[in-house]
Amino acid sequence: MDLGEKFKIHSNSLEPKAGKILISEPLMNDFHFGRSVILLVDHEESEGSFGIIINKPLNMMVNHAVEDFADFEAPVYLGGPVCDNQLFFIHTLGSIIPDACPIIDGLYWGGDLDTLKTLISTGIANEDNTRFYLGYAGWDAGQLVEELVRNSWLISDITVEQYLQTPPEHMWQTFVNQMGSRYEMWQRFPKDFQNN
Known about the structure:
Elements: H1 3-6, E1 21-24, E2 37-44, E3 48-53, E4 57-61, H2 62-65, E5 75-78, E6 82-91, E7 101-104, E8 107-109, H3 113-121, E9 130-139, H4 143-149, E10 153-156, H5 160-165, H6 171-178, H7 184-188
Parallel strand pairs: 5-9
Antiparallel strand pairs: 1-2, 1-10, 2-3, 3-9, 4-5, 6-8, 6-9, 7-8
């Protein structure tokens, strides 16, 4: 049996849309996307898709990564390869941040940064309700669908509680495990196949 066949995603009944997660297949050998979990922020087949890698913490704090940022010792995560020098944020603060866009019920993308800084200084915004990312992942029209056809990704659901309470460094394993026994072998597949 072809080794690639053993780890292939043979069914993927969920459709990509905002609020779904993409779980990378275990053979993907890419700095950004290997063992990644991506939260889709927007998906339009005719216009493209974008999302944020949510499970790759960087070794830095947001007030060290961004000049003149509020005094906030919160970690920064690798969001993706596009605009990787720009800061983005996901939060549960909702409409108290103007221009925040809902992703799923209770979880929001971006909004007015000055308002966020004020909320940080008053203690309303904190590590429990706000996460920061450098860069994002983007796909041109039709590109993500092509990758799904090639079985590069498994689509799943995520709740606000799972997003906030699952340690990011364990997200890939946790979400693969939730997909059931069909994907049990994924967990045991070595991260660096070349060295085995």
